[in-house]
Amino acid sequence: MDGVSKLRRFWKTVNIIQNDKGYQILLDERPIKLPQKTELYVQSNLLAEKIADEWKKIGEQKEDFFSFNDLPMTQITATMIEKISPNPDIYIDALLPYVNGDLLCYFAEQPKKLVTLQQEKWTALIHWIEEKFEIKLKTTQGIMPIMQDTEVVEIFKNYLSDLNSIELTYFAITVPLLGSIILTLALKDKRITVQEAFDLAYLDEITQAEIWGQDTEQQAKLNKIKIDIQDGYNFYDYAQSE
């Protein structure tokens, strides 16, 4: 987040302890507290290690400056603990519009190169998701909105409702970045990599840059999006580990 205030490092040591609540990260023996004053606990030793590494690295020395942008695993974990876990229905409702608006269901009309690439690269994933959920998705060319069958929306709602807090946090972060529940699911199921998910989601922008040349400002935005996608996936991967 640009414009976020810089803070000063106030600790020298970072340690991890384990108790009956899980793993906790201590800064000079004081627990990390989240924005709503909740103490940070995680159930995965690997995620705890990654969070601790962030706090060890930022600023390097006491009194050095840092921002919360330097703490992606901490930020995502805080979102899960203080926002998503207490209110999962809010986030499920926010994700459901992507069933009708999934990027992969809206094929381009031009240029020809983009149309061909989308047909080649998107269609297989559409068929995969249709087989996975035993559904038939509507697709279109252009931007006119389409409405999937009510049964399709209900199937995705049930799927999202069955996710645990870690999985729902991953979806809440990744679906808006990719514009696609299908791509988010394919990445979660390891059918595609983070790089492939990014390339498929931003096929239009990548193709336009190849045709017309690269825009420096847009490329910087895309690079940031790719990092955010990687962070969301890393959180899911780390948090699912023992």
From TrEMBL:
Query: InterPro entries, alphabetically?
Result: ATP12_ATP_synth-F1-assembly, ATP12_ATP_synth-F1-assembly_N, ATP12_ortho_dom_sf
- From which organism does this entry originate? Commensalibacter nepenthis
What family is this? Belongs to the ATP12 family.
Q: What is this protein called?
A: ATP12 family protein
The record's section on PANTHER family has: ATP SYNTHASE MITOCHONDRIAL F1 COMPLEX ASSEMBLY FACTOR 2 (PTHR21013:SF10), ATP SYNTHASE MITOCHONDRIAL F1 COMPLEX ASSEMBLY FACTOR 2/ATP12 PROTEIN, MITOCHONDRIAL PRECURSOR (PTHR21013)
Keyword tags = Chaperone, Membrane, Transit peptide, Transmembrane, Transmembrane helix
Parts forming coiled coils: none
Question: Transmembrane segments in this chain: where?
Answer: 168-187
